[in-house]
Design brief:
Length: 551
């Protein structure tokens, strides 16, 4: 560890503890000496000067809160003495210049992907089975039972074997105490390398959800838009769609959304309506045959070289901590800038976690209409949240707060680092598709799974997901690369972490070096050379966003 403390921005009046600091000890930074007045845990902050009630607290160079009581130099910044506050913003002249990174090491590079008829390239090759309404979820489970294991996509039964061992112990007359003390293998279940019938198809995925009826017509339309995004997605070879018949999310609505995204859709989409077909057996048998035939066609595709410009990278964070905005998120930001320079696309979402950095993002928009759309979506979202007694300031979770993100503005300023420094080329409302290269802002909640689900529905064919506390989040059709903000997490939860940026905190690597290393990792994942933890575990998280209030 080269440094124990860090001042993120020259204008900040707080300093981050990179390791635990004890009351009474002194630390030095930039020729200044600070005496710590009370214990400051790693990831938390202390004041660089005496602050009075109402004084502004600045981090990452932006307003992140106001003091609620006097805070002395060296004193801990906490929820007891700091309240969320964010700066105002206005539309101004858009900034055209940005620090373009050197991409000589990546120019001309390719990845191995699946080329689609519309010119897009997938990083995987899946078949999806989709219900238009929750009433069809059971039929999806029937299809899953019929297809997955026999096609070679089943996973190991480690935990079932543990249950059988417990049953054996009970039948042998062991007491509760003896069973609790028994030495039973508790290793995490791993993927059995079954022989797949279709070697070029990565799997059949079932997008179970609880929508399609009983809500607003707007929710049904948005759901169909999201599902259409998954069907036209470059990681998808084709789709089987089950409809009940009487629901709000009608087949015609889905077709309308498909036409918006790909008017010349050439991949197979098979639709089955239960109320028209009659019996369950008629529905399932027909769906099985068509799906099997579709898989035979999908299996004829093979990976071929594609330019890095065909990568659309989703930027996500969850289980964030006080190091997220210092290590993992800036790493992702530099990777984003590299990919944008190479002609690729990136998606920054989670609008509640952009609170406080609106001015910067407005200034980075390529033109005034783009900035205006971002401003409108942000203000409308926040107003709707306030109308039901909430607001962006209520976004941080208990885990965030415990690990140093004590206001939404602190969390947001660090989260926005994932977007790097490139211009904002487009602002999208959920569930619109990415159509332009460069940095795209997508309106979604900060909820990890809702946001990841939306990013993939908008076209992300790889997702990079930073976490300081650890989360297993994945996606049915896109690989989600889990990035640790600190080495302790990477060592504690190695079964879900793919990439560690704790090297930055430890002074072993720069942000630029980490960002280049991450792009190399993304290329390997996109080429199918590395199977990320979420894919290995079958972590197929899928939650559509209902446009009510969700932070």
């Amino acid at each position: 560890m080269k440094n124990r403390i860090l001042k993120v921005h020259p204008n900040d009046n707080v300093i981050v503890a990179l390791s635990d600091l004890k009351a009474g000890e002194t630390v030095q930074l930039g020729g200044e000496t600070f005496t710590i007045l009370e214990d400051v845990a790693a990831k938390h902050k202390f004041a660089t000067a005496d602050l009075g009630e109402g004084d502004e607290v600045t981090m990452y160079g932006v307003l992140v809160g106001k003091a609620q009581k006097p805070i002395f130099r060296g004193g801990l910044i906490s929820t007891a003495n700091l309240k969320h506050a964010a700066g105002t913003y206005q539309l101004g002249e858009q900034r055209k210049d940005w620090p373009v990174p050197n991409v000589n090491g990546f120019s001309g590079r390719t990845f191995q992907g699946y080329h689609r008829a519309d010119g897009k390239v997938g990083t995987a090759n899946y078949w999806v089975v989709i219900p238009l309404v929750f009433c069809e979820n059971r039929n999806l489970e029937v299809l899953r039972e019929a297809l997955v294991d026999d096609l070679g996509y089943g996973r190991s039964h480690t935990y079932q074997r543990q249950t059988r061992e417990l049953v054996s112990l009970m039948r042998a007359g062991k007491t509760v105490e003896e069973i609790l003390q028994a030495d039973i293998d508790v290793e995490t279940a791993t993927l059995e390398k079954n022989q797949r019938l279709f070697s070029n198809v990565d799997g059949v995925k079932f997008l179970i959800h609880d929508g399609g009826c009983g809500g607003t017509r707007q929710d049904a339309q948005a759901l169909c838009g999201l599902l259409a995004g998954y069907i036209v997605h470059p990681n998808v070879a084709g789709a089987t769609v089950l409809s009940l018949g009487c629901q709000n999310a009608q087949v015609s609505m889905l077709k309308e959304e498909l036409a918006k995204r790909d008017p010349n859709l050439q991949k197979p989409v098979y639709v089955f309506e239960q109320q028209t077909m009659g019996t369950e057996s008629a529905l399932i048998s027909a769906a099985l045959k068509k799906t099997f035939a579709g898989l035979m066609q999908a299996n004829t595709l093979t990976r071929q070289p594609a330019p890095l410009s065909k990568i659309c990278l989703g930027l996500e964070c969850g289980g964030s901590d006080g190091f997220s905005g210092i290590s993992a998120n800036p790493t992702v930001g530099y990777t984003s800038d590299l990919l944008v320079t190479l002609g690729g696309s990136v998606i920054l979402s989670e609008f509640p976690e952009l609170c406080g950095v609106e001015q910067e993002l407005c200034d980075r928009c390529v033109d005034a209409p783009t900035a205006e759309r971002f401003s409108t979506l942000m203000s409308t979202y926040n107003d709707r949240a306030k109308a039901v007694g909430s607001g962006f300031d209520m976004n941080p979770s208990p885990g965030n707060i415990k690990d140093g993100l004590i206001t939404d503005a602190i969390k947001s300023a660090g989260a926005a680092k994932k977007g790097g420094t490139s211009p904002v080329t487009a602002v999208l409302d959920y569930p619109e598709m990415v159509t332009k290269p460069g940095l795209n802002l997508l309106c979604t909640p900060g909820n990890d799974v809702e946001s990841t689900t939306a990013e993939v529905g908008s076209g992300a064919n790889v997702v990079v997901f930073t976490t300081g506390l650890g989360t297993p989040t994945g996606n049915p059709i896109a690989p989600v690369i889990k990035i640790a903000t600190n080495t302790a997490l990477a060592k504690r939860m190695p079964d879900i972490i793919d990439f560690n940026t704790g090297t930055i905190i430890e002074g072993e690597e720069t942000i630029e070096e980490s960002g280049e290393r991450l792009l190399e990792y993304v290329i390997a994942v996109a080429s199918g050379e590395i199977e990320v933890a979420a894919v290995r575990h079958g972590q197929d998280d899928f939650i559509p966003w209902k446009r009510g209030v969700s932070l």
